[in-house]
Amino acid sequence: MPKTTIEILTQTIREGAHPLTGTDTDYDSLLERIGDARLVLLGEASHGTHEFYQARAKITQRLIREKGFTAVAVEADWPDAYRVNRYVRGVGDDATGNEALAGFKRFPVWMWRNTDVLHFVEWLRAHNLSLDPQARQTGFYGLDLYSLHASIEAVINYLDKVDPEAAKRARYRYSCFDHYGEDTHAYGYAAGFHLSKTCEDEVANQLIELQQHTAEYISRDGQVAEDEFFYAEQNARLAKNAEEYYRTMFSGRVDSWNLRDRHMAETLDALIAHLDQWHGGAKVVVWEHNSHVGDARATSMGSEGELNVGQLVRERYARDAVLVGFSTYTGTVTAASDWDAPFERKWVRPALKGSYEALSRESGLKNFLLIFQNESMW
User: For 34, what's the count of Cα atoms within 13 Å in the CB-facing half-sphere?
Assistant: First the structure.
């Protein structure tokens, strides 16, 4: 009697699976598949699952130690993550990892202020400080664009130090948002429905002016000055893109989603270019949700007009990028019932019949890794 499609697929999974047993060799096959790739995008199916975070950290530690990866770029706001970056490189004011992570205040705070991230941050600091002073350290960076006001403040603080007159102009431009206080959604609604003047020109002009002074601002103190300028420039770019993002939120999900993922891919490109200037050959691990780091062209997202970071990275870097997703059949997750509501431990509903998660469970295996070699996706 011929086998059914499900029987064929479950057999294929059993034959191709690399069991994960909790030993140091668990991810050997994955590192072999990664080879000399410069980008590894690690996804996960929730923003509150210990096992996903733990596995992601273990893979990243091996990539740093064994493959020379020099940056971790995460689905987090640029200024909050840069505070952690300073800590792990031993140049910040924070005395502990907990203090460095305290900048993450936006819902859901548990996404980054959790035990697994704390352990990784402390590991990364210890790793960096154990290196020769001239060796290349591994940084920690954010790719997201929700931190409009924090980024505005960072731009002004930077200009206060290097060019007080330019800081005055920046304050005037950014005062366009003052009427809305910290309520970015109120600004987006009013600007998106033409109920008030937008701040589009102000944020764009501020970014342009900052970039026009690049040579002047970075000529003062070598790499330190260039790092600080890069931090400020990225905040100015974030303010520009965040303004557009909040303005398009009410025009449709596809527009705002695509703008956000384009921003994250653009930030990743800028980070690689910046790191390449000093040492060349920058290698970056990306931590985001599966929906961002998978290739949208292989899912219903693509047919609905959505793109994502995984797609944009593959289009730009081809074989230099490896995409890795995490998923499960069921279990518990940290989540909230409403936006800004307290976190709870919730049960994940069992996977839908016929889904890859359900097929994986029917294979009889527990924890395992599958490696796909689909040449048509390059």
Answer: 24
Which domain range does residue 173 map to?
145-251
* Residues 170/156, Cβ–Cβ less than 8 Å: yes
Q: Are residues 186 and 284 in the same domain?
A: no
Tokens of 313: 């990275």
What does the alpha-carbon distance between residue 129 and residue 214 come to, in Å, rounded to a whole number? Answer: 30
Q: Are 138 and 151 in a shared domain?
A: no
What pLDDT digit, counting tens, does each position of 35-47 carry? 999 999 999 999 9
Strand partners, 348: 331
Neighbour-count burial of 32, counting CB atoms closer than 10 A to its CB (0-12 exposed, 13-18 middle, 19+ buried): exposed
Task: Give Cα separations from 348 to 49, 243, 338, 343 (angstroms).
Answer: 10, 35, 16, 15
Query: String of b and e for 44-73 (b: at least 16 CB within 10 Å)?
Result: bbbbbbeebbebbbbbbbbbbeebebbbbb
Tell me how far the alpha carbon of residue 345 is from its chain's centroid. 24
| CATH number of the domain where residue 62 is located | 3.40.50.11550
Query: Model confidence over 79-93: pLDDT tens digits?
Result: 999 999 999 999 989
DSSP-derived secondary structure letter, 368: E
For the chain, give the number of residues: 378
CA–CA dist 18, 41 (Å, integer): 19
| Interatomic CA distance for residues 329 and 348, integer angstroms | 8
Query: Are the C-beta atoms of 176 and 202 separated by less than 8 Å?
Result: yes
**Predicted TM-score (pTM) of this structure:** 0.94
Domain boundary among 251, 279, 305: 251
8 Å CB contact between 51 and 80? no
Per-chain mean pLDDT for the chain = 93
Place of tokens 């109120």: 186
Q: Strand 39-42 to strand 331-335: parallel, antiparallel, or no bridges (unpaired)?
A: unpaired
User: Does 223 share its domain with 256?
Assistant: no
Question: How many whole angstroms separate alpha carbon 213 and alpha carbon 323?
Answer: 37
Q: Which of 221, 251, 281 is the last residue of a domain?
A: 251
How far is CA 193 from each of CA 99, 149, 189, 254, rounded to the nearest angstrom? Answer: 40, 21, 6, 17
What are residue 321's DSSP bridge partners?
A: 39
Q: Let me know whether 212 and 75 are in one domain.
A: no
Specify the 3-state DSSP secondary structure of 28.
Answer: helix
Secondary structure class of 326 (helix, strand, coil): coil
